[in-house]
TrEMBL record:
<dbReference type="InterPro" id="IPR050477">
    <property type="entry name" value="GrpII_AminoAcid_Decarb"/>
</dbReference>
<keyword id="KW-0812">Transmembrane</keyword>
<dbReference type="GO" id="GO:0019752">
    <property type="term" value="P:carboxylic acid metabolic process"/>
</dbReference>
<keyword id="KW-0456">Lyase</keyword>
<dbReference type="GO" id="GO:0016020">
    <property type="term" value="C:membrane"/>
</dbReference>
<dbReference type="GO" id="GO:0004058">
    <property type="term" value="F:aromatic-L-amino-acid decarboxylase activity"/>
</dbReference>
<dbReference type="GO" id="GO:0030170">
    <property type="term" value="F:pyridoxal phosphate binding"/>
</dbReference>
<comment type="pathway">
    <text>Lipid metabolism; sphingolipid metabolism.</text>
</comment>
<dbReference type="GO" id="GO:0008117">
    <property type="term" value="F:sphinganine-1-phosphate aldolase activity"/>
</dbReference>
<protein>
    <submittedName>
        <fullName>Sphingosine-1-phosphate lyase</fullName>
        <ecNumber>4.1.2.27</ecNumber>
    </submittedName>
</protein>
<feature type="modified residue" description="N6-(pyridoxal phosphate)lysine">
    <location>
        <position position="273"/>
    </location>
</feature>
<keyword id="KW-1133">Transmembrane helix</keyword>
<dbReference type="InterPro" id="IPR015422">
    <property type="entry name" value="PyrdxlP-dep_Trfase_small"/>
</dbReference>
<keyword id="KW-0256">Endoplasmic reticulum</keyword>
<dbReference type="Pfam" id="PF00282">
    <property type="entry name" value="Pyridoxal_deC"/>
</dbReference>
<dbReference type="InterPro" id="IPR015421">
    <property type="entry name" value="PyrdxlP-dep_Trfase_major"/>
</dbReference>
<comment type="pathway">
    <text>Sphingolipid metabolism.</text>
</comment>
């Protein structure tokens, strides 16, 4: 993911040694077959990385037949703009049915007195941003909470809730009230949340499960608080929304986190994670569509005509809606349950392996996605040892921990065997390194394990982001 890798394992100029680099639009277009050959070579190499089954999260389905089927569905509507419904009634069917299916999965039948509704967005962050914008607009309209009225809206979120909530506060002018979690359970304490709420709190947040530890916040207690204080409660089910319901059906200890819980007013669930659809899709559902509708946008006085959009995007891909719908309807409850059965069983087995080492400690009580740390040594020594063996864990901090969101590529028996063998050696290595007083190289960065980023964060961030976006523009002409 990061071009500027302190360990030098990633290239600044990927593929420049093998394929032409384009820094200007070619005067003569290149033949399709040449370009498809290049794309095929890059995709095959990159697929081989996750096909090993040693990558946390990221590739949720990992089944090329499923991807080929989704590609077919996508291709039929890839050129379609889902904004223009007069031309494509299919999109009304796809989007409406995706929303209905997610509402059903989240037990919207339990909602009384209001009409539930949803939105299809571009990903987990998109769903969270839309939800928080909706709460801001709804609170302004119904409770008079707005900066203009001298009442700065605020959001109360556990420290473990995804940074997309911080991003929402940053973008939408909302005060971010982040509260700590219990270090032993990794869960937010409802009393701490209650204490942070005031008259300007538009919503509170709980995760099912959270990204760092995969644990589920006490949604029922948060729901009671939300109802009592008149605030919304967003449950972030981006990660868990499409797998926890099936874990519950399979008998795993999954507490209710959906609309069966009084006080829950919105839930995000990512179709592009355990929904096994293509990247670029997620769903956010609301117990009351009046909240969703508060963020609808119109500009009816524009010279280009009367403009309206249901969310922050303008044009949207008809292909993604078709592929998302195709994934859900093809797999059905039975398919999702079968995948969940394998994933939960693999995660249980991996956690048993971790627990077999007295120096390692699982954080909280997770199910399909877990983190572990060590009180005996710096856990990043374990990451250092596992990395050259192909393992790609996510590094965490406060305390240092490594995280594994178990997905289908890990459900092969050989992956579990490799995990057991490599972890045993990694623990021995970590003990030695610690005893010798050596520092670990790995560090904590979202989406990977990488060193550095402890100080001068703005400068380091700019270097990393520029590395992703700009490097190819500065490629020396001789290599172009
Ligand atoms: C719990 C949770 N919420 C939100 C997100 C953000 O999702 P996305 O990366 O699709 O924007 C993630 C991503 O992993 C997540 O795990």
């Amino acid at each position: 993911m990061f071009d500027r890798d302190p360990e030098g394992t990633m290239s600044d100029f990927p593929y420049a040694d093998r394929f032409p680099v384009h820094r200007t639009l070619p005067e003569q277009g290149r033949p399709r077959e040449d370009l498809l050959a290049e794309l095929t070579a890059m995709a095959a190499e990159e697929d081989a990385v996750w096909e090993s089954g040693k990558i946390s999260g990221t590739m949720y389905c990992g089944d090329h037949e499923h991807y080929a089927y989704l590609t077919e569905a996508f291709a039929k509507f890839a050129h379609v703009n889902a904004l223009q419904r007069d031309m494509c009634p299919s999109q009304t069917k796809f989007e409406g049915e995706i929303i209905a299916m997610v509402l059903d999965l989240m037990h919207a039948e339990a909602v009384t007195g209001t009409r539930p509704g949803g939105l299809v967005t571009s990903g987990g962050t998109g769903s969270i941003l839309h939800a928080i914008l909706a709460y801001r607009e709804y609170a302004a309209a119904t409770r008079g909470i707005s900066a203009a009225a001298g009442r700065l809206p605020n959001l109360v979120k556990p420290e473990t809730a995804h940074p997309a909530f911080d991003k929402a506060c940053h973008l939408f002018g909302i005060e971010n009230r982040t509260v700590p979690v219990d270090p032993a359970t990794t869960l937010v304490d409802p009393a701490v949340v209650a204490a942070a709420i005031d008259d300007n709190t538009i919503a509170i947040v709980g995760s099912a499960g959270n990204y760092p530890y995969g644990t589920i916040d006490p949604i029922a207690e948060l729901g009671r608080i939300a109802l009592d204080r008149g605030a919304g409660l967003h449950v972030d089910g981006c990660l868990g929304g499409f797998i926890l319901p099936f874990g519950e059906e399979l008998g795993y200890p999954v507490p209710a986190f959906d609309f069966r819980v009084p006080g829950v007013t919105s839930i995000s669930a990512d179709t592009h994670k355990y929904g096994y659809a293509f990247k670029g899709s997620s769903v956010v559902v609301f117990s009351d569509k009046a909240i969703r509708n508060a963020q609808y946008f119109h500009q009816v006085g524009w010279s280009g005509g009367k403009y309206m959009s249901p969310g922050m995007d303008g044009s949207r891909s008809g292909g993604l809606l078709a592929a998302t719908w195709a994934s859900m309807v093809h797999l059905g409850r039975d398919g999702y349950r079968a995948y969940a059965r394998d994933i939960f069983a693999t995660a249980e087995a991996m956690m048993a392996t971790v627990r077999s080492h007295p120096e390692l400690r699982i954080m909280g009580a997770p199910t399909f996605c877990f983190s572990f740390t060590s009180d005996a040594f710096d856990i990043y020594h374990v990451a250092d040892f596992m990395k050259p063996r192909g393992w790609r864990f996510n590094g965490q901090q406060y305390p240092n921990a490594i995280h594994l969101a178990v997905t289908r590529p890990q459900t092969k028996a050989c992956v579990l065997e490799a995990f057991s063998a490599d972890l045993a050696e990694a623990v021995a290595y970590a003990r030695e390194q610690q005893a010798a007083g050596r520092l670990a190289h790995s560090g904590a960065i979202y989406g990977g394990v990488i060193g550095g980023l402890t100080s001068e964060v703005e400068a380091v961030m700019t270097m990393i982001m520029d590395g992703m976006l700009d490097t190819q523009q500065s490629l020396p002409p001789a290599r172009a």
